[in-house]
Design a protein that fits this description.
Elements: H1 2-18, E1 35-41, E2 55-58, E3 61-65, E4 71-76, E5 79-89, E6 92-104, E7 109-120, E8 130-140, H2 142-147
Amino acid sequence: MKKFWVFWLILAGLQGCSMDRHYAPDPSLNEMNAAVIYVYRTKNAVHGLSVDNPYFYVDDQVVGQLSPGQYVRFLVRPGRHVLSSKESFLFAPGDKSGNLSGDFLAGRRYFFRYAREKMHSGGDNAKGNSGGVAASFFPATWRMYLDKR
């Protein structure tokens, strides 16, 4: 029993070491002098080896962790920024699964979609053999955001 607790203490310590910085926007930013970014996750709840929710970043700083159908909204200064996602592993950020960069303008809204989708292998199998789960992260439209599709 003692070994069990030691294992969990070590695991908790490793997770604490791996935590990334959280994004803290400048309090002077507003919708007129900043770009407004929405990152949403589709309603589709497909899980791969990890049932944890992915983490989302702007310039390597965490902006949120999203369950199916959720979104995060944040403001950034005008200019070049990098948006990325990381699949979680043991309840902490793991490998990057998406990476987008671009120039963002003040007073504009930008929408980005994240989805996990089942991959099917080819062939004549009517059941569709599962080939695993693939994550996608890309620009979206206002309508897609509203529908969370």
